[in-house]
Please model this.
Amino acid sequence: MTTYRKGLLIAFVGTVIWASTGIFISYLFTHYTIQPLTLSFWRALFMAAAMFAFFALTKRDVLRISREQLKFLLFYGVIILSVMNVSWTSSVQLNGASVATVLVYSSPGFTALLARPLLKEPFTLKKFLAVILSVFGCVLVAKAYTLDVWQSNWWGFVVGIFSGVAMAAYSLAGRWSAKQFTDSWTVTAYGFLFVAVTLFFTQTPASLFSLDTQYDGWLILLALALGPSIFGFGFYTMSLHYLPASTSSLIASLEPVLTAIMAIFILGESLNLIQWLGAAITVGAVVLVQSGE
Model:
């Protein structure tokens, strides 16, 4: 297997795992009283604690960093990952899940555009067409082609677009970190440690323990962190060691499609014909961007 194909496989597996986070989060918001920032804090804390405990026992080299690397990880966790979490959850609150999903997956376009001046990645006609198809496919899957879905205020639209920029920044920073860190798990572990520290200051005692004695809710939140969150983010960051950031970002745009398909079997939701068409277009965009490589 070539390095490029290995990266494609890792990115795809990571995206499949990542897609299931939407199922967990949807279930938590539907059945329990918990705020998006509180969920993000506990998820980041559980992720960081699990990774630090695991690597401290099995592979301590992953946790060893230099002073220069610490500076980058602070910026990566406190600024990039935290802003991505806050902007995404705020967009969901302001716009609703469908519109927010479409706006955050404007990220492949921003990633492809910014990767050229920042990382010297080529921006080809094939990538341009793939970005357009990817965004269009996400619009169809999220049913954002109806006017009632887009009845959001201008500030909600700005925040939603910003969440796409933040996700693009996450992809670009992850690609840059691939040249600075031997193991991508170092970036993931420290990144979410600093996310947890940052988001802690957004909490009050009441919001922090809003699940109270609902132990099944705590178990679902723990499962979200230890399963799809760790391996979704971990594999995606790992794929950036092998792929251009723009390619990994386009593969990640399969997430809303995969989440919608999972929701059919797990949550009993359904897709109409137009949504299936959107899913096919998004998959076609990913095939297009990697064909001939």
Observations:
- The two ends are 13 Å apart (CA to CA).
